Amino acid sequence: MRFIALVALTAMFAAMPLQAFAASNSCYSASEAEAEHLLRLHSELMVITVTCKQSSIGQDLVAAYTGFTRDNLDALRKAEHTMIEYYKNNYKGNGISHLDKLRTRLGNEFGQHIANSSAPEFCAQRRDRVMTFASYKPNQISEEVQRLMASETSYVPVCTSKTRVAKATKF
Questions:
Q1: Residue 32: its pLDDT value, please?
Q2: 6 inside domain
Q3: Range of the domain at 61
Q4: What Å distances lie between residue 48 and 24, 71, 103, 144, CA to CA?
């Protein structure tokens, strides 16, 4: 029985596309890491909005989130384009499906915070973030993205000079 399981496992890894293994050796440039973190912030605000609906003083989070998205649309589109290009360069395909998977993964990540506690607890802790970021100017959003980059791990490590050399010399 163990032999059959081992054969099945070996066959599964043999059937995996090579880019799945190659992707584990990729890294983000600084602009790609910034793009992921801006999309991370946007996804967090979306999950908060959908879950909580109102701020702690009854303000409409949907209107605030929509305003945040509208006011930062150029930066969000640029972040999406950056990630699509990253995925095109590191995976097969056009990159859009990988961006969709990133967006889903980010939404699920914040949804897990709700599952780990409860919606009322989640909302008590985070609901006012939507109002805060809706009032931020672009430079303040950029500062927050930089803070997030320093405090939260991205899905792909950021390139260092050592990883850039390794990527450049890889055959």
A1: 96
A2: no
A3: 31-151
A4: 31, 18, 15, 17
Please give the Cα distance from 49 to 131 (Å, whole number).
Answer: 10
The reply to whether 19 falls in a domain is no
Neighbours of 60 (CB within 10 A): 14
Rounded Cα distance between 64 and 134, Å, is 6
**pTM, to two decimals:** 0.78
Q: What tokens appear for 27 in the block?
A: 């890294």
Contacts of 105 (CB under 8 A, 6+ apart): 155
d(CA 58, CA 112): 25
16 within a domain of the structure (yes/no): no
Q: How far is CA 150 from the centre of its chain?
A: 15
Residue 18 lies inside a defined structural domain of this protein: no
Q: What would the pLDDT profile of 45-102 be if each residue is shown by its tens digit?
A: 999 999 999 999 999 999 999 999 999 999 999 999 999 999 999 988 789 999 999 9
Counted domains in the chain? 1
Kindly report the CA angle at 11 between 10 and 12, in degrees rounded to 5?
A: 90
Contact 141, 72 (CB under 8 A): yes
CA gap 76, 72 in Å, rounded: 6
